[in-house]
Design a protein that fits this description.
Elements lengths: L8 H4 L3 H18 L7 E4 L21 E11 L19 E12 L12 H23 L9 E8 L6 E11 L1
Parallel strand pairs: 1-2
Antiparallel strand pairs: 2-3, 3-5, 4-5
Helix pairs in contact: 2-3
Length: 177
């Protein structure tokens, strides 16, 4: 038996696939337009948790880091109406909100050559860069044409812990699709 994989986002899911693909485009474009693009990865990623910072390349200059878009879960909506004609279909239908995550990892200052902590100035620059990334991710999501006309709710917008020389920003939203 041969296992086939979807060739396009729409083959994976006719609604969620294109939404994730368009959101990825919005994130990548917004970061690049602001001069904060990433050089290694800006993609849709799988998994039940944030991706590892394994592509947080620190050697590619201003565009260092990695960005992602990820489907997190379907959140059930408890409503008893027959919205969408679910009761008339042959298959059972469930109305859910799609929880989607966008995020970015960037390299942050580490120990100096003698093993001492980074300077106060370096830490401050790292913090300000991540605050800028926070603003850019929020802009990418709030201005993305794929979400226009849809009910979108911000669930969280928070920093990540520093791990392996990288730190980042993660945003989760629920989308009614």
């Amino acid at each position: 038996m041969t296992l086939t994989f979807p060739a396009t986002p729409a083959e994976a899911d006719p609604v969620l696939g294109p939404l994730l693909n368009q959101l990825q485009t919005c994130v990548c474009f917004t970061l690049a337009e602001a001069g904060r693009g990433v050089c290694t990865q800006c993609s849709i990623v799988p998994g039940d948790s944030r991706p590892p910072a394994d592509r947080c390349d620190c050697a590619c200059g201003q565009g260092q880091g990695q960005a992602w878009v990820r489907w997190v879960r379907d959140q059930p909506v408890n409503e008893r109406s027959d919205r969408g004609g679910y009761m008339r279909r042959r298959c059972q239908g469930w109305r859910t909100l799609k929880v989607v995550e966008v995020g970015i990892y960037r390299c942050v200052s580490g120990p100096d050559e003698q093993g001492g902590p980074p300077s106060v100035e370096a830490r401050e620059q790292d913090a300000l860069g991540l605050i800028l990334d926070r603003r850019l991710l929020a802009k990418a999501v709030s201005c993305c044409s794929a979400l226009k006309g849809r009910s979108v709710e911000l669930l969280s917008l928070e920093p990540t812990a520093v791990k392996g020389g990288c730190a980042g920003v993660v945003m989760q939203v629920s989308v009614d699709i």
